Amino acid sequence: MGKISIYVLLCLIYVGFSKSVISIHENIPFLKSEKIFDSFFQNAPISVVLIKTFKKGFFLKSYFLKIRVVHGYFPSEDLIIQTSEDFYNKNLYNLGMAIYQRKTLESPGRSIPQPGGSIFIGDLTFGSWKIDHSGDRVWEFHRAFRFFPEILGWGDYRPSLEFYQKLKINETFNRPFYGLTGEFGTSGHITSKYFLKPETIEVEKREPFITHLKNLFLIQFKKGKKNE
Question: Which of 79, 133, 139, 183 could join 179 via S-S bond, C-beta 3.0 to 4.6 A?
Answer without folding.
Answer: 183
